[in-house]
Amino acid sequence: MTLVGWLQISLTLLAVLLAIKPLGLYMSHVFAGERTFLSPVFNPVERAFYAVAGINQNREQSWIAYTFGVLLFSIAGFLVLYGILRLQDILPLNPQGFPGVAPDLAFNTAVSFITNTNWQSYGGETTMSHFSQMAGLTVQNFLSAATGMAIAVALSRAFVRSNMTTLGNFWVDMTRATLYVLLPLAVIVALLFIALGMPQTLDGSFTATTLEGAKQIISTGPVASQEAIKQLGTNGGGFFNVNAAHPFENPNAFSNYLGVFSMLVVSSAMVYAFGQITGNRRQAWALLSAMAILLIIGIGAVYWAETSGNPILTQLGVDPLQGNMEGKEIRFGPAGTALYAAVTTGLSNGGVNAMHASLTPLGGLVPMFLIQLGEVLPGGVGSGLYGMVIFAILAVFVAGLMVGRTPEFLGKKIESREMKFAMLAVLVLPLAILGFTAISAILPVGLAGLLNKGPHGLSEILYAYTSAAGNNGSAFAGLTANSIWYNTTLGIAMLLGRFAYIVPVLAIAGSLVGKQKVPASAGTFPTDGPLFVGLLIGIIIILGGLQYFPALALGPIVEHFLMLSGQTF
Amino acid sequence: MSSKAKSISMFDGAILLQALKGSFTKLNPSKLVHNPVIFTTEVVAAMVTLLWLRDMISGSGTPLFSGQIAAWLWFTVIFATFSEAIAEGRGKAQADSLKRTKSDLVAKRLKSANGKDYDVVPATSLKVGDLVYIEVNDLVPGDGEIIEGVASVNESAITGESAPVIRESGGDRSAVTGGTQLLSDWLIVRITTKPGETFVDRMIALIEGAERQKTPNEIALSILLSGLTLVFLIAVVTVSGLAAYSGTIMTVTVLAALFVTLIPTTIGGLLSAIGIAGMDRLIGFNVIATSGRAVEAAGDVDTLLLDKTGTITFGNRMATEFIPVDGIAEEELASAALQASLSDETAEGRSIVALAQADYGLSNTVLDGKEVAFIPFAAQTRISGVDIGHDQIRKGAIDAILNVAGLTKDTAPQSFQKAVDSIARVGGTPLGVTHNGKLLGVIHLKDVVKPDIKERFAALRAMGIKTVMVTGDNPVTAAAIASEAGVDDFMAEATPEQKLAYIRKEQQGGRLIAMCGDGTNDAPALAQADVGVAMQSGTQAAREAGNMVDLDSSPTKLIEIVEIGKQILMTRGSLTTFSIANDVAKYFAIIPALFVVSYPQLGALNIMGLNSPQSAILSAVIFNALIIIALIPLALKGVSYKPVGASALLRRNLLVYGLGGLLVPFAGIKAIDMIVAALNLV
Question: What is the pLDDT of residues A110-149, one digit of tens each?
Fold first, then answer.
C-alpha cells in the first residue's frame, strides 16, 4: 500500500461525499414533484408520456398496486428485450452481422438486465449488435435503475406518512427518476468519458495493421454512452467482454476514478434523498456512515491483500513489492483495482477493471463477501437503500427490545408484520446463493463449467450465484457460464434476488404507511447516532458472516491457507 | 409508596420437583410446536437418536459419539421446557393459596329485594343479579356491588394486606370481592359476576398461565427466531453439498449438531419463561394484569395521568407557616392558632397543632385545667375556635374572620392583604386568626407534596415518560402544586369528559397513555387509556374498565408496572443478542472440526485449540445446552432496568450481552472440551 494509492482512493470518495448533498436534495425535489431547474426542459416530455400512457399523475397507488406496477413493467421489459435479442439478426444496426441470441442466453441476458444485475454470460463485442446494445441493454440500464429508485422512494414515503394507504405512483416515480436524474447525469458523464478517450461511434469495428504487419480487427461502438449509464445506474454490464479492464471501456486512471465516482454518486445521494423525504437528514448520514465504514474496510482489505503479494510468486523471483499484479491493468495499479473491486461489489454494480479470480484468495473473498452482505454498501441505486432499511429494521428490533420498548424506526413501530416480511427478504439471498451453489457443486452439469478445481473452483461457482442473487453481475471469471444449466439457474437466482426481495420491501412499506407516527421521547432509542451505526454494522457483518462462513471457509479461506503452504489452483 | 415484592424462592424444592415433571410432559410435540425453535430441536434430537440406534444395532459408525450428541440434544430440549415449567411453577404456588379461599363458599341468597329472608345455597349456583346477605364472619360468596349497608372487610386473601377496609353502598368503595371476609356489620350485595369468572377466578387463571397468549412483541420476536432457524437450515443443508465437492462426507449427526448449535435455542428455550416470570413479578407487586399485552404496553407508555390527591399530595391540607400582621409576634399568632385548634380533630387542625409544637416549641397542654368551651366549625359561619374564660380565639375563612374583626377587605392591614395574596398565588389556602376580635395573622394551609415524589417523576422523565397531574383544583393551585411536584403538565378543574378528551388527543398524536383511577367516573378514561390501572379499593365499574388492578390501591405503582413491562422486553432482546453472538464461537469450534480431514490447513481456524474434531463438536453441543440452564435465573429475574436513557441502556446491554455473548462461549467451549478430553468421552 502506498500513500499515493490511498490518496487516489480518498480523493475519489471525497468527491462523492461532496456531491451527495446537492444531488440528494435535487432528487428529493424531483420525487416530491416540485419544480426544478430542469423542469422547463423535461416537464413537457413528462406530461406527454403520461398523456400517451393514460396515466393520471395525481392518482396514488396502494402498495399492492405499486408492486403490481413494478412487476408488470419488469415483465414487459423482459419480453421486449428477449424479443430484441432473439431477433437481432433481422433488426437494424448490426454491422458485424451477428446471429440471433440463443434462447437460454437470451433469457439469462434479458433477466440480467431487467433485474439491474447485468450478469453477462456472453462477450458483448462478439455477440450483441449495436441495436441490441443500445435499444435493448442500455434502455434497461436506465429503466431497471429507475425502478429501484422508485421503490426506494415509495419506502421513504411510508416513513413520513401516517394512517395512509398510498405510497405514490410507480409510473410517475419511475418516469421522473429516468428523466430528471439518470438521463441528464448520463449525458454529462458520457461526454466526460468521450473527452477521456472512450469511443462513441456506430461503426462496428476497424482493422489495424500491427507492427509485425499483421491485420487486427478491433471492435468498437457506442461505448461511452453505455458506459455512463452502466456506472450511474449501478448496472455494470460492459460493452466489451472484459468490461472496464478493456482500454476502450476504461482508457486511463482518470476514467477509472470517474467510473468509480459515477457508480457511487446516485446510490449515495439516494440515501440523502431518503433523509430529506423522511425529514431526518441525520438518519441519512447515519446510514451513509455505516455504508462508508464497511466499504472503506472492504477497499482497505482488498488493497492490503493485493499489495501483500503471493508468496509462491515471490519464491519464483517476483519482486514482492509489486504486489499481486496477476489479472490487473498496469494503468490502474493495486489502488485503482482495489477501489474498483470493492466499490463495484459493495454497490451491486458488477463492472470490473480486473479479473477477480486473479486476486489473491483473501482479495477475492472480500468482493464476494461484500455482495453477500446484501448489496447495501451503498448498494444499487434505490435497491441499496431499501436493503439497508431492512437491516436497520432488524437492528432496531433487537436494539429496541434491549431498551425496553416496542421497537420503532423513524417513529414507526416495528411489529410482527414488518418482521415477517423483513425475514422473508433476508431469507432470499442465502436460499438462492447457497442453494444453487450446493447443487452446482455436486451436479456434473455444474462442474462442467469449471476452469479450475479445488477450492478455487468452488469459489467460481459461489461467486457466480452470489453475484446473480445479489443482482451484482460481476464475474469471478474462470467459470464458463454460457450453458443451459448456468444460464437458467443464474437467471432464476437473479429473479429471486430482485423480485422476491422487492415484494416484501413494498409490503413493509404498505404496512408502515398505515401506522401512526410515534413522537420520539427520552425512552426512544436514537437511530441517528454512532451507537446505532455501530450496531447496524455489527448486525450486517454478523448476519452475513453466520450465513456464509461455512461456504467461504471451503472456498477462499482454505485457498488462502493452501497458498501459504505453497499450493495454488 | 414503594412496595415490597412478595417473593417465592427461585428454586424452592417442591416447585423444582413439580417443574422437573412438567418439563417432561411438555415434550409432547403437539404442545411444543408453539415454540418453533425448540420444536425443531426436538425433531433433530429424535432423528439423531434413531441414527444412534442404527449405529448400535448395526455395530457401525460411532455409537459412543452419536449417543452423546443425541443425549445432549435432548437435554437442550428438556432444559428449555424445564425453564418454562419452573416459571409456571412459581405462579402455581401463588394460585394454590388463592384457590383455598375459594373452596366451599356458600351464599345466603335473599328471597326478595325487601326483607332479609334467605336460602343458603352453594356460591357456584349464584346468578348475575342475585341479591345476597352477608353477615359478620361470612365469606363474601362472589363479586358484587353493595346495595345496602356498611361493613369492614378483611381482604387479605387477595391483597395480602391484613388491615380491614371499609366497604359501603354508593360512592367509590361499593365493590366487594368473592373470598373476602366480613369483620363487622352486614351487607346486601347484588352479584355482578358469574361464578367461575370472578376476580379470584381470573387471578388464578392468569397466575397459572392458562390464559397466557403470546404478546405482539413476543410474536414478532418468534418470527425473527424462526427466520434465523430457516437461514441456518439453509446454511447447514447446503454445506453438505459444498463438503461433498471438497471431498468430505459429513454424517447427519454432525450436521444436526452444527444446526442445533447455530439456531437460537438459548432465547427460544427461555422465551416463554421470560413472559411468565414477568407476569409473576407483577403479581409479586400485587398487581393483576388481564393480559400480557397490557404489561408490555406499559413498557411503551409515553404519558402518565396521575390523580393529584393521594398520589402526588397526601390528600389533606396541612399548615406550613404562620404569617402575623404588622405589630404581632409570630409566637403570639402561633400560640393562638394552637389553642384554637387543640380540640379540632380534622387533619388541618392537627397539622396546625403539630406545626406550632415543632416550630415554636409550644406545649399542647396550655389549656389543661382551664375552663374552655370549644366552638366547632360550622358551614354557615365558616369559623371555629375556643373560648377560654372571656378570651375568644377564632380561626376561619378570610372574609368570615375579617367580619369577626370588624374589618373589610379594604380596611384590613396591608401586611394581612399581602400575606393572603401570596398564599393564594402559590395555590395554598389562607386561614385567618383573631384574638378577642383583634386580627393576629394568617395560617398558610397547603397541599403537601409527598416527600420523594419529585425524584420518582424525574426517574419517569429519564425513562421518557411525561407525567400529567389531574386535579379538580383551580388552575392557580394546580400550577403551584404541579411545579412543586415536578410534573410535566397538569389538568386543572378536570372533569371525566376532559380526562377522556385528553387521552384521546394524546393517542391521536401516537402516544401511549397510562392512568390509574378508582371511581366509576374514571371508568371511561380507564377503558380508553392503553394501560388502565384500577384500584382494588375502587368500584366494580372501574375494575372492569381497566386492564390491571392494583391490590394495594397505590397509584404510584404505575412506575413499577412500567419498569416490569420494560424489563420483559429487555430480557428478551438481551438474550436474543446473546444467543446470536454465541454463534461466532460455535463456528470456530465446529467448522475446522468438520473439514480438517479434507483440508488439514483449516486447522488454523481452530483458535481455541480444541482437542479433536469430535470433542469440539460435542463440547459446542454441551455448551449450547448448559447455557440455557445457566440463564434460567436471569430469565426469571429479568435484566435490570435503570432509568438512564435509551442510549446508555443500550450501550450497557450491548456490552454485557453482545460482547459477553461473543466471548463467553470461547471460554465455555474450551473448558468443556478440556473436561471431555480428560474424561475420554469421545
Answer: 999 999 999 999 888 889 998 998 899 999 999 999 999 9
> Which A residues in the span 322-361 are in contact with B, Cβ-Cβ below 8 Å?
none
Angle between helices B557-595 and B453-463 (to 10 degrees): 40
CB contact under 8 A, A423 and B223: yes
Nearest to A529 among B302, B647, B654 (CB): B647
Residues of chain A with confidence (pLDDT) below 50: none
pTM of the full predicted structure?
0.87
Question: Scanning every residue of chain A, which has its alpha carbon at the shortest distance from the alpha carbon of B576?
Answer: A398
DSSP B452-481: THHHHHHHHHHHT-EEEEE-SS-HHHHHHH
Q: List the grid coordinates of B17.
A: 420437583
pLDDT at A568: 75
A406 touches chain B (CB under 8 A): yes
Please name the amino acid found at residue B440. Answer: L
Helices (H) and strands (E) in chain B, counts: 23, 22
Q: Which of B307, B344, B447, B473 is catalytic?
A: B307
Residue where the block lists cell 402455581: B92
* For testing contact with chain A, the best of B245, B281, B639 (most A CBs within 10 A): B245
Q: Which of A411, A416, A525 sits opposite B646 (nearest CB)?
A: A525
Q: Where are the beta strands (DSSP E) in B338-452?
A: 372-375, 383-388, 391-396, 429-435, 438-449
CB atoms within 10 A of CB A29: 17
Q: Decide if A414 and B220 are in contact by the 8 Å CB cutoff.
A: yes
Q: Find all residues with CB under 8 Å of A234, minimum gap 6, and list them.
A: A116, A145, A263, A266, A267, A347, A348, A349, A350, A379, A380, A381, A384
Q: Is B307 a catalytic residue?
A: yes
Asked if A126 and A241 touch (Cβ cutoff 8 Å), the reply is: yes
Partner-chain residue, chosen from A419, A455, A525, that has the shortest CB–CB distance to B220: A419
pLDDT digits (tens, 9 = 90+) for A330-347: 889 889 999 999 999 998
pLDDT digits (tens, 9 = 90+) for A358-412: 889 999 999 999 999 999 999 999 999 999 999 999 999 988 899 988 899 999 9
* Cβ atoms of B192 and B143 closer than 8 Å: yes
| Interfacial A residues in 446-485 facing B (CB < 8 Å) | 455, 457-458
Please judge whether B245 and A458 are an interchain contact, meaning their C-beta atoms are less than 8 angstroms apart.
yes
Residues in chain B: 682
Contact B241 A550 (CB under 8 A): no
Q: Residue A509's domain spans which residues?
A: 383-564
Q: Does residue A569 belong to any structural domain of this protein?
A: no
CA distance B624 to B618: 10
| A389 and A245 co-located in one domain | no
Phi, psi of B145 (to 5 degrees): -115, 135
Predicted ipTM of the assembly: 0.94
What's the rounded Cα separation, in Å, for the pair A154 and B327?
A: 78
B37, B213, B219, B223, best to mutate vs chain A, most A CBs in 10 Å: B223
Q: Which among A402, A519, A549 has the least Cβ separation from residue B650?
A: A402
Which of A258, A282, A306 represents a domain boundary (last residue)? A282
Q: Return the residue of A nearest to B568 by Cα.
A: A404
**Of A254, A282, A310, which marks where a domain is finished?**
A282
Nearest-angstrom CA–CA distance, B560 and B564: 6
Q: Within this chain, do residues A394 and A247 fall inside the same structural domain, yes or no?
A: no
Q: Check whether residue A271 and residue A395 sit in a common domain.
A: no
pLDDT at residue B209, rounded to an integer: 61
Mean pLDDT of B492-512: 86
Asked if residue B36 lies in contact with residue B80, where contact means CB atoms within 8 angstroms, the answer is no
- Kindly state whether residue A359 falls inside one of the protein's structural domains: no
| B chain contacts of residue A437, beta-carbon cutoff 8 Å | 238, 241-242
User: Is the per-residue pLDDT at B161 higher than 70?
Assistant: no
Residues of chain B in contact with residue A465, where contact means CB-CB under 8 angstroms, are none
